[in-house]
Design goal:
Blueprint: E1 2-6, E2 13-15, H1 17-32, E3 37-42, E4 48-53, E5 59-62, H2 71-81, E6 87-88, H3 92-95
Parallel strand pairs: 3-6
Antiparallel strand pairs: 1-2, 1-5, 3-4
Amino acid sequence: MGYLTYGNTAERIEIDDQTLTHLRMVAMTKLRRNESFPLTLEMADGVIETLWVHASIPLRIAMDRPCAIDRDMVTAMMHAAGSAGGLDLTREEFASAVSTRRSLHAIGA
């Protein structure tokens, strides 16, 4: 199980390594291109939050171990991240792999 932190908060959002491996690839690719995108996650308390991923906002990704890359998953995530709705990890195609444990309030980040 890995995690990401967003903004200047120490709050961790836990995500399984498989999903986090792919999310890291997508985030690094988008940020390297200077492209921001919305990222939607379901928090441990059931609240669905959307974070604005932008190069000016600190984003830290840490995981126990990177997993094998599923190119179809990366492609689907990249396509979603580039869409108007952004990368929504609560969507059925991504949700089965996502497990968040801690709450983060994006407004305060």
